[in-house]
Amino acid sequence: MPETVNRQVLLAARPEGAPRESDFDLAEGPVPGPGEGEVLCRTIHLSLDPYMRGRMSDAKSYAKPVEIGQVMEGGAVSQVVGSKLSGFAPGDIVFGYTGWQDYALSDGRGLRKIDPALAPVSTALGVLGMPGMTAYTGLLNIGRPKEGETLVVAAASGAVGSVVGQIGKIKGCRAVGVAGSAEKCKFVVEELGFDACLNHRDPDFAEQLAVACPDGIDIYYENVGGAVFQAVLPLFNFFARMPVCGLIAQYNATELPPGPNQIPLLMRAVLTKRLSIRGFIVWDFADQQAEFVDHVNGWIREGRLKYREDFVDGLENAPQAFMGLLQGKNFGKLVVRVSPDPTG
Amino acid sequence: MPETVNRQVLLAARPEGAPRESDFDLAEGPVPGPGEGEVLCRTIHLSLDPYMRGRMSDAKSYAKPVEIGQVMEGGAVSQVVGSKLSGFAPGDIVFGYTGWQDYALSDGRGLRKIDPALAPVSTALGVLGMPGMTAYTGLLNIGRPKEGETLVVAAASGAVGSVVGQIGKIKGCRAVGVAGSAEKCKFVVEELGFDACLNHRDPDFAEQLAVACPDGIDIYYENVGGAVFQAVLPLFNFFARMPVCGLIAQYNATELPPGPNQIPLLMRAVLTKRLSIRGFIVWDFADQQAEFVDHVNGWIREGRLKYREDFVDGLENAPQAFMGLLQGKNFGKLVVRVSPDPTG
Questions:
Q1: Helix B161-170 and helix B130-137, axial crossing angle in degrees, nearest 10
Q2: For testing the chain B interface, which of A233, A261, A266 should be mutated: the one with the most B CBs within 10 Å?
Q3: Between the N and C ends of chain A, which has fewer C-beta atoms within 10 Å?
Q4: Largest CA distance in chain B
Q5: A103-106 and A39-47 strand pairing
Q6: How do residues B198-225 score in pLDDT, each as one tens digit?
Q7: Residue B202, number of CB atoms within 10 A of its CB
């Protein structure tokens, strides 16, 4: 496949509120050749994840923003098509943060070979990748689930939430999911085996949550924020834990919600119920990667942990798919098929 | 001293907002005689502490409220004046939650003998008692101070904050206090040895705090809430820790502050800075009591840890003193002298 054109999705403008098509630019350029010590990768699967919204903004955060005119940041599964770097050979399947583009050069830093015999290679972006590891490390290190406890998981059909709840079940918890449609809720209960799943769009969602958690909530795995958190807060038990890895419901917000200021309510709950709230990103637990892959892959093979992927075809559709992700339009881990998967 | 009258401060009404005189009742009754298995204690020093505001309210909390007509709850140092319980003899000095009264019967549960040779017995209510242990356990278990880090302490001249900052200094931190008057700030820096102390009533308090913390804030020991917390939030470093043991600034509030709702701001900081926020009460660390007394008493003897007590004379003045405590009118650990100290 002698390709000559490299398409790239660039950040054209910093979004105000929800990103729009005009915040992205589809550029074309030549496919670069690898220099000494470099690898040329052809993207197979591009991962789309909520954290990318943060990279589009220049508000201070834990990572640098993408600059205007730069290729959008993203993890991808690729095939090596040219290599002047020892350890990598054409044909290798690799994972790396190679961005929203058809081809990428890499000096090998952050590039990791993937064994296609282990699992479908797209899972390196989801259940066996960053989202799965976010679920695993946040739940086990911060949530510290104990048998018989109640675990509530937002975005329960998504890449992270689906894994959180299933690991919670494996650890003996009651798992209550929250999702954005009846169809997603059905999947979460019937396919993933959660004990219950509630639609946060239902007007009586808070009441439903109280009914679904008759013994209160011991762990709330926070990846959305907003209304779900507000409904969870009064249900916390003493010594409840709240890992915070995402706040997708507020990423597009351009202003704070109307008053009153509810921080005193939150802090009162923290004090009187002795809550633990802790933010993290997956790389805070980088040393647990091998253990994570080992455990989660084992659970998948035993049929105890399932995953769902939502494929979109074509790099040119990545911006639209990403905008939908921020509104919960995806159903499962969102992956863009950029080129045919030679292993599938 | 054959006393015949037992005065008791009762909860007369649940306060709306700040407590008033009329929320308390000073009642008189006979001094009871100890039955089999009981001890009669005469109160020497009564402790007044912010948590008591919570006991006056029937909002759900970690402890039951005082009922209307009941004796106000409180820890006190007392002398045993009659005993039909083995292990306690007249003349013993004891600590117990014997309440706002001249005399109290106890079945011995929660009653602990105090050695007057160790330190002035009033310290069992402050630096060597519940407030000191709150400081010690919260800072060391949740704050986890490391050499060179910046620790901010609210209510820095108070019973808890003064100990927090001094232990922080012993552990090698930069200690920045916050207090409610220039006189208190002077004491905190000159007597207690904090690196800086700021008056939260100054209009440019937030700017002063930023200047006093040039390397950001690694630990904020939260015992007041409100405006101090708002000024601290933007200064947190990555992986900062926030033990929460009190929120005195909001105890008397009858409504939430005006909007916008700043919870999304707080949660964004939790996520992007990977903050840890954890509420606790001292008894969550009950097994560390011996270690606490040992360490803090050692530091006092070495001259590395100082304390200040604010004495008020007369049980009848306890309500007024308590109302002042909630407004920060005390200067040091607030103690009511109920009867002469036979050890002093």
A1: 40
A2: A261
A3: N
A4: 65
A5: antiparallel
A6: 999 999 999 999 999 999 999 999 998 8
A7: 13
